[in-house]
Design goal:
Number of domains: 2
Oligomer: single chain
Helix content: 40-55%
CATH architecture of the largest domain: Orthogonal Bundle
CATH topology of the largest domain: serine acetyltransferase, domain 1
Structural class: alpha/beta
Number of helices: 9
CATH superfamily of the largest domain: serine acetyltransferase, domain 1
Largest sheet: 5 strands, parallel
Shape: globular
Order of helices and strands: HHHHHHHHHEEEEEEEEEEEEEE
Length: 299
């Protein structure tokens, strides 16, 4: 193929890629003046939030009791500015209106949401402290809270989830899902920001865990690697399309333990203090206090 043929092939590919029919479902029509969500900015937002939630472990490592208020103040002010911009981008992305004409109104809304989120950081830290405690108490290999905070992928994934969940509750579109997917890429733990998860939650090892959008998890719940809390089926509407937003994932009540590679599907309830053994497939309710394990096949 000579250089002339290269040019012809490339030109045809450009023409094909520019055909409206080929990109109609894959194209975001950018409106001038409307910001777009930024993965880099959202990563910085998570880092800033972690530095405020876990001072000394993330952010400036030289923080001490005399300087902690200063460093938290600097980081939170930067967080507010970055978060306002990204919330605005999410609101514009999810809006059917031309954002250039309503930018001031949406910016005020974005700033209000960002301020509300920051006001929830103390509560968020208190909740994450229970998760750290659960991870430490649940793993004999953990020698300190510092080791858990610094090293455990579950804490990274759960902190991203709890940040994202609060933003979702505050009405922010798109951005929460990007934040949890950042943790998914980093840790292999996939928690949808729409899931509802109680205190003292931990995931041991973590790789391959999937927690679906409408999952409800109580307090003192522990999951091991490879656990799936998923949907059994997707009801279709009259046009054959999946019905969105209906409860379709499991409910795990307080003090439930689910061991590695167990799969729990559908809107089933795992009663409090139940134990689900490894490699178990569950599609029906499990009574409180029940222990389900694999049985040996009879010869």
């Amino acid at each position: 193929m000579n250089s002339l043929n290269f040019s012809t092939v490339i030109a045809k590919a450009i023409d094909d890629l520019s055909e409206k029919k080929s990109y109609s479902k894959l194209f975001h029509l950018h409106q001038e003046g409307s910001p777009l969500p930024s993965g880099d900015a959202l990563k910085s937002i998570v880092d800033l939030a972690r530095s405020a939630l876990f001072p000394g472990y993330f952010g400036n490592s030289s923080t001490n009791s005399q300087t902690v208020k200063y460093y938290i103040g600097v980081n939170v002010e930067h967080l507010f500015d970055l978060l306002t911009g990204q919330i605005l981008a999410g609101l514009c992305f999810g809006s059917d209106e031309h954002c250039e004409s309503c930018n001031d109104m949406l910016r005020d809304k974005a700033a209000t949401i960002a301020a509300k989120f920051i006001s929830l950081l103390p509560q968020l830290r208190a909740t994450l402290a229970t998760d750290v405690e659960a991870a430490f108490n649940g793993d004999p290999a953990a020698h300190s809270y510092g080791e858990v905070i610094s090293c455990y992928p579950a804490i990274r994934a759960i902190s991203n989830y709890r940040i994202a969940h609060q933003l979702l509750v505050l009405g922010v579109p798109l951005i929460p899902r990007i934040i949890t997917e950042l943790a998914h890429s980093e840790t292999g733990i996939d928690i949808h920001p729409g899931a509802q998860i109680g205190n003292y939650f931990t995931i041991d090892h973590g790789t391959g865990v999937v927690i679906g959008e409408t999952t409800i998890i109580g307090n003192n719940v522990k999951l091991y690697q490879g656990v799936t809390l998923g949907a059994k089926s997707f009801p279709l509407d009259e046009n054959g399309k999946p019905i969105k937003g209906i409860p379709r994932h499991p409910i795990l009540e307080n003090n439930v333990i689910v061991y590695s590679n167990a799969t729990i599907l559908g809107r089933v309830t795992i009663g409090h203090d139940a134990t689900i053994g490894g490699n178990i497939w569950v599609t029906e309710d499990v009574p409180a206090g029940t222990k389900i394990v694999q049985t040996k096949a009879k010869k």
